[in-house]
Amino acid sequence: MALHVKKERRDFIQYSTLGALGLVLAGGVLGAPYLKREEKYLRPPGAVEEDRFLALCIKCGQCLQVCPYHSIHLSDFIQGYGMGTPYINARERACYLCGAVPCVLACPTGALDHHTEKPTDVKMGIAVLEFPELCLALTRTPVPKAAVDKIYTHPHTRAVEEDVLKKLSEFVDKPCTICADMCPLPNAHNAIEMVRADNGAMRPEVKSGCVGCGACEELCPAMTPAIVVKPRLGYEDYYTKEKKS
Ligand code: SF4
Ligand code: SF4
Ligand code: SF4
After folding, report:
1. CA–CA distance, 222 with 134 (Å, rounded to integer)
2. Does the Cβ of 175 fall within 6 Å of ligand 1?
3. What is the 134 CA–ligand 2 centroid distance (Å)?
4. Which CATH number fits domain 50-121: 3.20.20, 3.30.70, 3.30.1360, 1.10.10?
């Protein structure tokens, strides 16, 4: 009898725990579409407007399979909405703007618009010097080796990834120009340049050619990246309308 009661109690705990877990999971899954998007994802190159993107993307993962830099991930329910859709976490691995934009070519539905044929067609977002007080150039701090070593821990199982990360060693102990010099766009000076700041030091200035690939954010050696990408915004949106400057 005592054994029977114990078993019932164990079963109850087991099933109620499972039930609670199920409710939490179901809540996450069912609620996910309604957790509206305060935080925007940085989508892969060519991503169409967000609502259309969510409707068109069939979550096949073709784009991430062809990306040689491991830039693309598929979101899970913890991230709130668009479960299974591709996004880029620039801080861990940006997009390096491959010449033929293979992720777009691989997309079977047009969620990544096939009119995006080359790096300068990309419109992922816009770079912003969000934390100027952390910028090593503005604070006249030479690039520390430890910071470069830390970035070198980002994924690099392929030669193209290693090539990017290895280049950072050339900046160690020098004034920081990494964001401007490592921008992967052809004619990168149309996207970002070092200019003289009011305090006489140098600072990065983002230009209208920036496509928001996030390379500057990934490679920025400041304690927390001083330059970040605002997804889904263009130069006009941020620098003209939001900043009114
Ligand atoms: S352009 Fe290249 S690096 Fe960027 S997401 Fe597409 S495949 Fe990856
Ligand atoms: S990479 Fe970062 S620290 Fe270096 S100049 Fe650019 S924003 Fe400043
Ligand atoms: S400035 Fe930064 S975000 Fe803009 S294109 Fe260059 S590396 Fe990419």
Report:
1. 6
2. no
3. 8
4. 3.30.70
Give the model confidence (pLDDT) of 117-131 as tens digits: 999 999 999 999 999
Q: What does pTM read for this prediction? A: 0.85
Q: Which residues pair with 205 in a beta bridge?
A: 193
**Which is the closest atom of ligand 3 to the Cα of 124?**
3
The pLDDT tens digits for 65-113 are 999 999 999 998 776 789 999 999 999 999 999 999 999 999 999 999 9
Q: Rounded distance, CA 42 to CA 121, Å?
A: 16
Q: Which atom of ligand 2 is nearest to the CA of 134?
A: 3
Domain positions in the chain are: 50-121, 125-242
Residue 45 CA: which ligand is closest? 1
